[in-house]
Amino acid sequence: MRNCSEVIDPKPSAHADRDEPVGSNRGRVVQLQPQKLHIKLRVGVPHTFDVMFKRAEGYPIDLYYLMDFSFSMRDDLENVRKLGHQIVSALKDVSSSVRIGFGCFVEKAMGPFISTFEETKKCPCKKSFEEPCQPSFSFKHVLNLTEDVAEFKTRAEKESISCNFDPPEAGFDAIMQVAVCQDEIGWGDVTRILVYASDNTFHLAGDGKLAGIYYPHDGKCHLNSEGLYDMETHFDYPSVAHVAEALSTNHIMLIFAVTKDHDEQYMAVSELIPQSVVGVLEKDSSNVVQLISKAYDDLLSTILLEHHRVPPGIDISYVSQCSDGTHSPRQRRGACNHTMINEQVNFTVTLHSSACLHQPTSFILKVQGLNEELQVTVETLCNCDCNDTERFSPECSGKGTLTCGICNCDEGRMGQSCECGTQEHKDSMFALDKMCISPNSSQPCSGHGSCLCGQCICNGHLRGRYCQCDHTSCNRHNNLICAGNGKCNCGTCECNTNYSGPACECSTLTDQCHTGGGGLCSHNGHCKCNKCHCHPDFFGRHCSEIRAPCIKFKPCVLCAVANEEDCKHTCGDIKLTKVNESATLVCFEDTVYYNVEMDKADGSIRMLYVPKSSKMYVVYLLISTASGGVVVIGLVGIIICKILLEIS
Prior knowledge:
Layout: E1 13-18, E2 23-25, E3 28-30, E4 32-33, E5 36-41, E6 47-54, E7 61-68, H1 74-91, E8 98-105, H2 118-122, E9 140-146, H3 149-158, H4 171-180, H5 182-185, E10 191-198, H6 240-249, E11 252-259, H7 263-270, E12 276-281, H8 288-301, E13 303-308, E14 314-321, E15 334-336, E16 344-353, E17 361-367, E18 373-380, E19 389-391, E20 400-403, E21 406-409, E22 413-414, E23 420-421, H9 429-434, E24 449-452, E25 455-458, E26 462-463, E27 469-470, E28 476-477, E29 480-481, E30 486-489, E31 492-495, E32 499-500, E33 506-507, E34 525-528, E35 531-534, E36 538-539, E37 545-546, H10 549-552, H11 554-561, H12 568-571, E38 575-578, E39 587-588, E40 592-598, E41 605-611, H13 614-647
Parallel strand pairs: 5-18, 7-8, 7-10, 10-11, 11-12, 38-41
Antiparallel strand pairs: 1-5, 2-3, 4-6, 6-16, 8-9, 13-15, 13-17, 14-16, 17-18, 19-20, 20-21, 22-23, 24-25, 26-27, 28-29, 30-31, 32-33, 34-35, 36-37, 39-40, 40-41
């Protein structure tokens, strides 16, 4: 905080100066709550508050019917004269009070938009047209907003059609005057709807230069005593943005009721004008009642909460909680669609200040198209206000006085929040902090915690008097600390019984290495971590399998067949056994069949062998000769058959 001798930490706060609940209150309808807020913000510290909107039933309506009076709309005028009562009746289904007004537009009364011949200017319609035809005009206000539907019919019947040269009309001139002439039109503090009916397009800003008009529209009301816009030849047509601003500022919703052949142009404009919709009008305006009813419901069911006149340095975001259960993330405005009558939507608004304001500043939040608004006054907490003190403050553990955000502790207490008691007069915060520093370190709690009253409060999984122990830093095996077979103590594994190793990964048991007779690994290997590790010539779980026995022990069996008396140097401790049958012997040489077996009880090796006899050679020779003869005879037979087939 600025201008403070001590550090203080004030918190953002909000107070509702006006907070009428939504609903009908003593005949007054409230749709937006609260209505007035005062917020104190810290720079860089966001603050949120809630805004509620409930669409009211029976909210009063002002509807102004603005009609194109060019010659092509003559049949529409006849229908509109009759439909005033039906329009009001349809709106009274959703509102307790409806007022209706009427106005019309054609074109600026100057060339090249109309004929400049005096006779034609007075009566611009075709001579064959027998009904009255009035001179062209940019806008005429005919009837103030009134509940008298009969008056609407009477005044509309007194008006006659007109005519102009080019297809576009001066509709935007007319919309601007209807929006800004508040007193002349008679707009009330109710739902305001402007219905714009036309069968053609519109002139835009810049088109006035065709008639030598260069002054841009000033956005002000210029109606004379007869209700005519009398500055049409002085100011250019307004731009779309200018029209949108005037409608939004005056809380007016716009319904474009236009024919099918021009609806795309008006839809493009509607996207630029908030709270506006486009409805397709029949050629004779016979469907205008249904069009207005549907457009009204579409407009009122879309709730858009926006901010206006926000001071620089204040950022605003919205989270919308709509009646249909949808929940939007942070957005630049609040938005809910398809909100029915008597349904409530909630908006969470977040303010964030990036700079100090020189003085309290106000801005508004309002729902598009409605005149209700929430006034928000914001001041930033950038300077100290240290006059208030609080004895026995909870911020000081009830043991001190809070002054300008700082605790002045009672006697016998110390610490930032007076949380520490002193046992002796010599105790000090310095002495208590020193108790948290280990002899081989310069940081309290080894830099991994905070010192509170002489004791370390360690961060996360760190432990120890000085937070020096990390119980997750031990060796791992199979991605488990201490292989899951021990506990980590200050970086070292303490293994459970029957386990060893830096990560407790090794079992000290030998039960998985035992073979018959009490031996380990068939006496052909050693047991490590309860698993057999075999000598080079053996393999298998218990080292009971011999690698390539037929090749390895070939010298030994040849020695035995040769009747050498001493094969010790060749066979070692192998037990030689001569047998009579060779059917089960899998190894063979030119003179012998043999097999090698291991006794799993003691790991000793035994060799069974039988020499090949001469009789066996004869049998083998006879069998081989017979087999070869059969093959030769078969081949000769095949060749003879092939030759006979070729000859035939």
